[in-house]
Design goal:
This protein is an alpha+beta fold and 311 residues long. It is built from 13 helices and 9 strands.
């Protein structure tokens, strides 16, 4: 099991709204911080991206892209500090813009993603507020951006299916590049790349319901019990079985929130011998029984629900 793949699969990115814009300067676009994860790619011209401070912008050249995590509103414009319009105002203002004129138009792509549950929010939380990525010609990211731009400008049959697949590829490549280049990646990512810990971590993600023991996990990693426990705690900041419990609880919360499984089914999938054992463990972990927690999760906004950014 590829642990990053497990996160991506369980995060279930959806709502990949994407648009290709052509804008003659001056132009500026303001996007709300309620977008959980936005991606911007420049095809032609230049764009400047910033959060609260236009004096600290990120410049994007053709072929560059950036991921922007939800939080404050963010701004994309032809120059730092330009007046930025809402998406509706922007579309109305620049509906007739072309690639010709005194100053070359900017051509850029914007996408918005929503992730499901605590696993998805943990994945987004591992990203910085703004992550600029440069993709040279021949780089996979560059190729995908080029394909997206051409597909968005075309009206061939099956266009939406092609866009959906390309967006999935773009997102995975961008997140992978972020984690690979990060000076402080999440602990689970560091551990998954460690040949001493990766096998045990993969085993827990592959089969969270298995009654793992520390000696068993140590054997999977080819280490002594003491060496494995010490290395695991040093890298992940907690004992192996505590990590396993936290991961099981993360899965349980997502199952509870989705509402598709019964308490008994969730207990089985998360490694508890009975609904009663699961309910007791869940209450110890969260202070509420699972049924009550599920009702509260339904009643409160997703932004207020707990995340597991370190797992």
């Amino acid at each position: 099991m590829d642990v990053l793949q497990d996160y991506l699969t369980r995060a279930r990115a959806s709502g990949g709204v994407f648009a290709r814009s052509v804008a003659d300067p001056p132009w500026g676009l303001r996007l709300p911080g309620t977008i959980q994860l936005a991606v911007h790619a420049v095809v032609q011209g230049r764009a400047w991206l910033w959060l609260d401070d236009p004096h600290a912008p990120v410049e994007l050249a053709p072929g560059d892209l950036a991921l922007v995590r939800g939080g404050p509103d963010h701004h994309l414009a032809h120059e730092p500090g330009a007046t930025c319009l809402s998406p509706e105002q922007f579309r109305a203002t620049h509906a007739g813009d072309t690639r010709t004129g005194g100053q070359p138009a900017s051509v850029f792509l914007c996408g918005a993603y929503q992730f499901s549950g605590d696993v998805g929010r943990a994945l987004v939380a591992a990203l910085p507020p703004i992550l600029p990525l440069s993709a040279a010609a021949g780089d996979a990211l560059h190729d995908v951006v080029d394909l997206l731009s051409r597909e968005l400008a075309d009206s061939a049959p099956g266009k939406q299916t092609v866009l959906d697949r390309l967006l999935d590829v773009l997102l995975v490549l961008a997140i992978r590049a972020c984690l690979q280049r990060s000076a402080d990646p999440p602990r689970w990512y560091q551990a998954s790349a460690d040949p001493r810990l990766g096998p045990a971590l993969s085993a827990m993600h592959t089969d969270a319901a298995h009654p793992w023991t520390v000696p068993e996990l140590a054997a999977v990693s080819g280490l002594s019990r003491a060496t494995f426990a010490r290395s695991f705690h040093k890298t992940l900041g907690q004992a192996p079985l505590q990590y396993l419990t936290d991961w099981r609880m993360t899965l349980a919360r997502d199952h509870l929130r989705a509402g598709a499984l019964t308490i008994a089914q969730i207990a089985t999938q998360t490694g508890y011998g009975s609904p009663y054992a699961f309910a007791a463990a869940f209450r110890r972990h969260h202070g509420h029984p699972p049924g009550q927690w599920r009702q509260q999760a339904v009643d409160r906004p997703a932004i207020d629900q707990p995340t597991t950014a370190d797992h």
